[in-house]
Amino acid sequence: MATDRHANVPAEAFREDDNWAYGEKRGDKKRGEWNYWRDSGELVCREDWGDGTSRMTYERFHPNGTVSQRGAKDLVKNVWIGTMRWERQPEPSSEDAYFPQGAHEAVRAYELVFDDDGFIIEERCFSSDGEPLTSAGAPLPARPEGVPAHAFLANGDQVWVAQARRMTDGTFRGERIMWDRNGTMVAHTVYRDDGSVLRSATYQDGRIWMEKEYAPNSEMVQRFFHSRTNPPVRKSETLYRNNQQDREETFFDKEGQHAFSVRMEKVSEHHVRRYDNGALVYEGIWSADPSVPPEKVEYYDGKGGILVRYRSNGDGTGMWTLFDDAGGVELELPEADERDRNEDGQWSRFIPGFARYEWPREKTDPELIRESFHEAHTEEVIAAAIEALKPSKSLTAALGTGWNKVKTAFGHGKDLPRLVLALLADDPALADYALPRIWMEIEHQGTLYDSTFRIATAIATVLPEHADRPDVERRLLSFLRDVLNLPHVTLDGAAHKLLVAAMQPSVPRLERWAEEAHAPDLLQLLGRIGAGSELAARWMRQDDNAEDRAFAACVFALVTKPAPRAAALTERLASEDDPFVRLVIAILLAHHDQIRTPETLAILEAALASPSQFDASFTRLEPMLGDDVRVAVLACLPAEAIVRNADVVLAALAEDSGLLYRINYLDRLLGAVFAGETPAQVADVQRKTLYATARMLDAHTNFVNLLEVVRAHGVPTESFAVREWAEGRSVPAHAKKPATKAAAAAKAKTRKHGAKNKPAAKKTNLAAKKPGAKKAKPIAKKPGPKKKPGPKKTVAKKKTVAKKKR
Do 75 and 54 form a contact (C-beta atoms < 8 A)? Predict the structure, then answer.
């Protein structure tokens, strides 16, 4: 380290840490003016300690002599007060090491405002021209109404924050409030003087959603509130005691009146009690050693009587007994694996999981315990009956082997062959038991698996063998129909082809049956396997029922080749009088063949404006066209038609209808009005669409489907940024500049000549909704249904401030 004294350094100066220092002391306290120099001779810091007892001010300097930092300290309280400011130069400086970390390069000055107790209550950033900026380097936006003047933007400029934060350890005091960019409150926390939390609240859409209140004895109360009540009304309140080992949750109705309470008391790791409205309803005591039988497992009726008791046989097995109201034995249920229940503590099998309670509830815990026991007993009986079933040779061959390696939604499919056997049983109780369990394994949230096709293909293979068992046959056909209706069933081409091939031997019988019984469900199934074209054509032309004609048109479009399909549908449209059938044909022509004549466009646009007249009839077409008229129409309309009807779509976005439908409307509208671009200057229809988008983002914060759609069209997912773009105050970073006249003319020319054959948008699966229930509707016997805010503490660290003088 250099120790040679520069000529600029006074002879009286002495070394203090890494700098030269000079000033007066009285005892061990500095007083008056103190100066510090770098080894290179420049003044690095000047302090004024006054009388050394009350206040100190300081300034630091860049090597070029300009101020780099200034502030003041209360010597009595030993805290920083007033405004502390940092400044950086265009050129690199040794003082840059002390500039608040994390600030954007555009930020050239940074200020912290301290209260009289040394808590930071405001943070400010400025450009080189002195213009206010956010810590992320953006121009400081207008402050929303209701957000106080000392609040600052934080958390990547996403929220406004008003708080009092201690610099030394980051603890808070008093109130800490957060608002989104629109000025809607999102969080409110109250701190004690020692920095611990007294109360915290989270808001959704500006309404309180959840609140926590902390007691000094470690108890905590968590409250949730009913949505859309004014003033707020408690929905539930949970009291946590004994380090959250004892939880009591109370539920309230929408008027705030007590509804019921439940409690779980974890006395120890292997001792649990449950209560319903204060009455003991379950107690389990078991050993840490899984080989030791439980000491006590009993359920109670809420009146002091025993409802269920477990008795061990001493060999790892035992017996559950359900008692009736008189104390007599009502049912018994064997337990085959005590060890497994001991290891997982699963002795509370007949009572709901504690997190499952909701208001309103229909049954008390004792009622649910009795019901759950009966269900478990029934399952035990059914499982034993299924185990006794013997598969036919043909079913065994159709199912094949290796099921312990076949992929399902939750692992392997070793149990699926046995469940398929139950699906083929004469006893409907066995089939009802098996069907939801099969669906749970072969389809999950739109995803299909190897097991999906192996199960369906095996059932299709043995289907002809069950023609003399009408109930079983209808059950199997319903299952196959629902599999073939799944949105992504054709993506695995090879597996789908095998399934369709396995159905072919049944086609003649299904065609006869569909025609003789006039069964639309069977016609639809035929359509899914490429059959039934002639039957569908006849129904489409001749059926007396308009809904059945529309249904038949959908099947006809599904199985007929493009040229004859377009010709037949166009001819049918010319002679059809029913508005609903005309709408369906117009959708089919536009969707399958991109035929959008003035006539079909007029039909589609009229339905878009007034869909309610078709809603009831449209429901029947759900597997083929979806279940929402507007979704189906918007999927077929070209962009220019959607823009032409933008006000109609915008009105639909404001309706209180299904959110997923409205997200679909927004998707099509954004795609049409922006056409894949994000212009810096927006047209009127784009501005209206942006405002509608912002309103949806406000109302459904962090809803994943909405965010994905908005993001896909290059629109910000933060509602404030969307409004700023709409109002021309700021634009997305990737927004395109206005094209030159030549480029715009060339683009317009391309659109004009390409519009004839180019689809308006990517092809949409109109029937994208999967079956509503895992248990399929049977083919009818009588066919035909008539989210600490703020940039991560970008201020100087304690170490930085302490080093300011060196």
Answer: yes
Q: Which tokens hold the place of 217?
A: 């004895």
Q: Which helix (H) or strand (E) holds 724?
A: helix 719-726
Q: Coil, strand, or helix at residue 44?
A: strand
Q: How far apart are CA 569 and CA 397, in angstroms?
A: 43
Q: With contact defined as beta carbons under 8 Å apart, do 37 and 13 qualify? A: yes
Q: List Cα–Cα distances, 433 to 186, 417, 726, 775, in angstroms.
A: 46, 14, 55, 10
Give the model's confidence band at 582: pLDDT under 50 very low, under 70 low, under 90 confident, else very high. Answer: very high
Angle at alpha carbon of residue 591, lines to 633 and 750, rounded to 5° = 95
CB-CB contact of 553 with 533 (8 Å): no
User: Is the pLDDT confidence value at 743 over 50?
Assistant: no
At residue 1, does pLDDT exceed 80?
Answer: no
Residue 197, C-beta contacts closer than 8 angstroms, at least 6 positions apart? 189, 190, 191, 212, 214
- Residue 804: per-residue pLDDT: 36
What is the identity of the amino acid at 686?
Answer: Q
Structural contact between residues 604 and 668, judged by C-beta atoms closer than 8 angstroms? no
Distances (CA, A) of 620 to 116, 146, 513, 626: 71, 50, 20, 9
What tokens were used for 308? 């269920």
Strands (E), 231-381: 234-241, 246-252, 258-268, 271-276, 279-285, 296-300, 306-312, 318-323, 329-335
Structure tokens, 23: 């000033």
Residue 66 has pLDDT above 90, yes or no: yes
Least confident of 406-415, 573-582, 657-666, 739-748: 739-748
pLDDT at 765: 39
Burial code (b: 16+ CB inside 10 Å, e: under 16) for 51-84 equals ebeebbebbbbbbeeeebbbbbbbbeeebbbbeb
755 pLDDT more than 90: no
CA distance 530 to 670: 36
Q: What is the DSSP secondary structure assignment for residue 3, as one 8-state letter?
A: -
What is the rounded distance in angstroms from the CA atom of residue 494 to the CA atom of residue 501?
A: 11
Structure tokens at 298: 């009993």
Please name which of 344, 351, 352 lies closest in space to residue 294, comparing C-alpha atoms. 344
Instruction: Dump pLDDT digits (tens) for 435-449.
Output: 999 999 999 988 999
Contact 298, 283 (CB under 8 A): yes
Comparing CA positions, the residue from 409, 460, 459 lying closest to residue 437 is 409
| Tokens 């709408």 sit on residue | 583
39, 6 Cβ separation under 8 angstroms: yes
In this prediction, residue 787 carries a pLDDT of 31
- Measured CA to CA in angstroms, residue 438 lies from 415, 442, 461, 696, 801 at distances of 9, 6, 18, 38, 66
491-503: pLDDT as tens digits: 999 999 999 999 9
Residue 112 phi/psi, 5-degree rounding, is: -115, 135
Kindly state the DSSP code that residue 685 receives in the 8-state scheme.
H
Buried (b) or exposed (e) across 340-363, using 16+ Cβ within 10 A? ebbeeeebbbbbbeeeebeeebee
Q: How far apart are CA 615 and CA 677, in angstroms?
A: 34
Reported as a single tens digit per residue, the pLDDT across 451-488 is 999 999 999 999 999 999 999 999 999 999 999 999 88
Q: Out of 187-196, 386-395, 532-541, 721-730, which region has the weakest mean confidence (pLDDT)?
A: 721-730
Q: Is the pLDDT of residue 770 over 70?
A: no
In one letter, which amino acid is 95?
E
Residues 196-208 have a mean pLDDT of 93
Query: Alpha-carbon distance 695 to 723, whole Å?
Result: 9
- Rounded CA-CA distance 13/37 in Å is 9
Cβ 103 vs Cβ 85: under 8 Å: no
